[in-house]
Amino acid sequence: MSVGPFVEVGAQALEPLVEVAQQAKQPKVRIAVLGALSRFPLSLDAWQVYGGVLRKTLDGERPGSTLRRKAIEIGVGVPLLSVRDAVRSIAATRTSDAKFARHALDEAGDVTGIGPLLRQIRSGKAAPDAYRMLARMPLEATVYTARKA
Fold it and tell me: In the chain, where are the structural domains located?
C-alpha cells in the first residue's frame, strides 16, 4: 500500500540491510544501518521486521554501551508500541540506561511522562523545558491525565 507520492518499502527489500544490522562486527556500522532503516517509508510488515531487529539490539546489548543508547534514541521514534514498550522497560530498570531512556522518552513526547510533568508544573517547580515537553505529548492523553490527577 502506498500513501501519497511515496512507495512503501516492504520487508523483503530490507533483507540485505537487516542482515548487516544484525551481523556487522562494528557497532558504528550496525547503528548507522539501524538509523538509516528508520528513515525509509516502510510498510507495516517492514516496520515489524525492523522493530524486531531493534528490540534485539535493545535487549542484547550491554547496558551503557553506545550501541544500546543509540538504539534507545532511535527506538523512541519508531511507530510500534512493542519498540516503545521496550524503551519504557529500560526506563523502569535500575540500569545505567534508565535515566537515558526516560530522557529519550520525554524528548519524544511519550505519554508516560505526562503525570510527572503535570506534578512539576502544579508544584511551581517545573524545569524550564517542562512546558515544551508537555506540548509534545498527545492532547488527548494530556487532558485525560490532567483531569484524572
Answer: 1-108, 111-149
